[in-house]
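Limitations

Structures in this collection are predictions, not experimental determinations, and the ligand pose is part of the prediction. Treat each record accordingly. The example that follows, with protoporphyrin IX containing FE as the small molecule, is included so readers can see exactly what is and is not provided: the inputs are given verbatim, and the output is the predicted complex.
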Amino acid sequence: MAIEQTARPAAQRPARPRQRREREEELLVWPDLLFPEFICAVLFTITFILLSVFIDAPLLNRANPDITPNPSKAPWYFLNLQELLLHMDKAWAGVILPTIAIIGLIMVPYLDRDTEGRGVWFGTKNAVKIFGFGAIYASAINILLILFDAGKFEAITRWVPGLQPIRETQLDGSEVLVNKGLLSVKDFEGRFAWPEDLRNIPVPFNQQVCDIYFKDLHLWCNFHLNLPGIMSGQVIPLSLIFGFTVAMIYTVFMLGWLRTRRDLMLVLFTGFFFTFLVLTVTGSFFRGPGQELVPPWGIVVDEG
Amino acid sequence: MAVEQPGRPRNTRERFQILGDLIYDKMFHNFVWQSIFRSGYPNTPRNQMLAVATNVFLHLHPTRIHRTHVKITHTYCLGGLTFFMFLMLTVTGVLLMFYYVPSVDRAYNDIQAIQTDVRFGQLMRNVHRWTAHGMVIFVFLHMFRVFYTGAYKAPREFNWVVGVILLVLTLLLSFTGYLLPWDQLALWAITVGHGIGGSAPYLGDETQLVLFGGFEIGQNALIRFYTLHVLALPLAAAIFMAVHFWRIRRDGGMARPL
Ligand code: HEM
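Predicted complex:
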């Protein structure tokens, strides 16, 4: 009697299909892995040697600190940072955001603790859709922002109240005032008639106090807040980054595609990856002398 | 009744076969060969597993592997290719080191000499340069593949972290190498990086002093970059790669669905 009662629940469990034994699914590393690896190695050796036979590594003139090539560019994998530097405060673009990006990458597996979608390409239900959306969204937003900072939307921002005209030099040397719209986010600092006080806000522990107590903290002592500068270099760009990221997640959520933490990671990583890509490509192929936005065939390096 | 004479060739085909067997026998069944390879070609599953498990170069691999991971479309061999690029860079890098002296007076001339006076020097420099770019591209693609196959999930979290460290090391290796030819491209690219380093909040000057040895790119920067490039960073990368590969084995091979 007792035996029957304990036995029943087990019997009522739905019958699971027999798991195939692990061993049956496995192949031998020799030859099934080693041979493809070997062929891969041979193919790539040949490819790179052929490449090297036909294309020489660049060697320009001897380094000369007195001659600055225009544009001078970092190695291509840092051009994303160089591109970012054009649009915002240099400490954020060059150091803080990259640090955050690396810490963020490290945190990926600790934030996404689902095992859903492990070990298969695009393993969750909506992964491919999320990838497609993230790729297009991030690319489009970045391209639009880059175009904005290149002054391409100048004509449609002329209405902005309080915008100061720009002084332009004519061919004959005379100067005229021209009404122009916003040419970049940096215009926020320079094109409005901010009261001078806002550009020079003393902070606590300034000057006198510093001279007495913190002689070595000269950075802090000479520090005056330039509010418009902070707005255009830090607050606006960072809000844009944050805002567009949140908007991306929200859109995917409203589309009903965001089901797990894995999906959330997919949104963030895809957005990050394509931002990285667009910035790198822009920095590499679309920045000419003076870091002006030019088409790839317009890039002429002035060797100085 | 004519009994077939064993070993006596009846036609040319058989003659060649016997010759082939003889050469094979002489090549592989002698005490020199057998002192290097303790057994013959492993042609049974048992011997093939033993061959992988007991060979110092192959034993990073498991002896068996799940069939989905052998499919080229699962990894595209990207991690393996990154590692392979690293090996090619080590070989060509050593050859370049024979001729290169990291001094601002000599560096540029040495590179020119490698290209014009050293036999296969230009080729070595080209291979080094292009595989360096290749390694950076492959490491990004490898990260891309690991992410989209969800391979960082438990229990592989830490191997992803090791991977991120390897990514940073790869970028630093490439960046430090960029300065060494001491031409205009090198100087000004590193100057841009110098500027970026200098923009670190509160630590800008310190960053420049530590990484570049000064406030402009000169001999100090060159010797620092050289030492990092040929010694410190490759050593660190090799150690982290060893950990990376070891962890793949310890974490139960490559990631699979539950
Ligand atoms: C120098 C750089 C690197 C080398 C030589 C390397 C090498 C490898 C190799 C050979 C594998 C075996 C599977 C495969 O080929 O895909 C692998 C797997 C793996 N790599 Fe890397 N890797 C590097 C960088 C990275 C980076 C940047 C990441 C991530 C941020 C990463 C994370 C992983 C993870 C999590 C696995 C396990 C994959 C799985 O279980 O399917 N690695 N790596």
